[in-house]
Design a protein that fits this description.
Layout: H1 2-6, H2 10-66, H3 70-73, H4 79-93, E1 97-101, H5 114-125, E2 130-135, E3 142-150, H6 156-159, H7 167-172, E4 187-196, H8 198-251
Antiparallel strand pairs: 1-4, 2-3, 3-4
């Protein structure tokens, strides 16, 4: 490899070195750009997950604190039911899914999956109140975010002792149902946010390819411009000097003059 490079002409060596440096610069900047876009997407997903979770939790807390006897006539006004329906509506109109989940669920739709069940257990045994990460394999990645739902005093009207629960709740769920006997501060469940990243990464790839094309065009223009300037003001004069020295050493004529035509390529 070294002998191959050493045998090249000066101009060719220069072109190889310059092109290699510019290609290396192109690859490094493209990688950094791709990584920055990935980080930006994950930060946006995290902010969106936090925002949606906060809205659902605040809605549930507000309903629990202000709703009185209305759910006895209209079960759809039960705070947890309201939050579940809001989550379903948001999910149907967005590019992500949001659910209200609990280990002691009353609505089967709120049953946690394997990942969610593990995180709920973590919430119950640690001070953490949120968790997020990218799960899945390459090409099937999903951004997962969960925010714990902590039992408030107002929640105990329906989730405290069975004896103090409203009659319509007792009729639906017997005393042995695990959704009773919560205490203030206990983890009642969580809001689960999941966003598939396949389409997002595909968009990043498309943007990156376009960016690479633009960068490659700029690289070619820079290569041609710098190459032309250096050949004219460095390589050509050095070549002329080398030729003159060779003639002097060959002929012994010390009166040899070196001339340089700046217009010569």
């Amino acid at each position: 490899m070294v002998s191959w490079f050493a045998g090249l002409k000066l101009k060719t060596k220069f072109n190889v070195i310059l092109l290699s440096l510019l290609l290396f610069l192109l690859l490094v900047t493209s990688y950094l750009s791709f990584r920055d876009q990935q980080d930006l997407i994950l930060k946006r997903a995290l902010n969106e997950g936090r925002g949606v979770a906060r809205q659902l939790i605040e809605t549930t807390d507000y309903m629990s604190a202000h709703v009185r006897n209305e759910p006895e006539k209209n079960y759809a006004l039960v705070p947890q039911v309201v939050a579940t329906q809001i989550a379903k509506q948001i999910s149907s109109e967005a590019h992500y899914q949001v659910r209200q989940i609990s280990t002691n669920y009353r609505n089967p739709e709120n049953r946690p999956d394997e990942y969610e069940a593990a995180q709920l257990k973590t919430f119950s045994t640690s001070p953490a109140r949120e968790v997020y990460e990218v799960t899945g394999n390459q090409g099937d990645n999903v951004f997962r975010y969960m925010q714990a739902m902590v039992t408030e005093e107002s929640c105990l009207k329906c989730h405290g002792p069975y004896e103090s629960a409203p009659g319509f709740i007792q009729q639906r769920y017997p005393a042995e149902h695990p959704s009773y006997n919560y205490s203030v501060g206990q983890i009642a469940g969580a809001v689960s946010f999941s966003m598939p990243l396949a389409d997002v990464y595909r968009d990043i790839g498309t943007n990156l390819r376009q960016d690479l094309i633009y960068r490659l065009i700029i690289l070619i223009l820079v290569f041609l411009t710098i190459g032309s300037l250096i050949r004219r003001y460095m390589i050509v004069p050095i070549s002329m000097l080398s030729e003159s020295i060779h003639r002097v050493t060959t002929t012994g004529n010390l009166s040899e003059r070196i001339t340089f035509d700046a217009s010569r390529d």
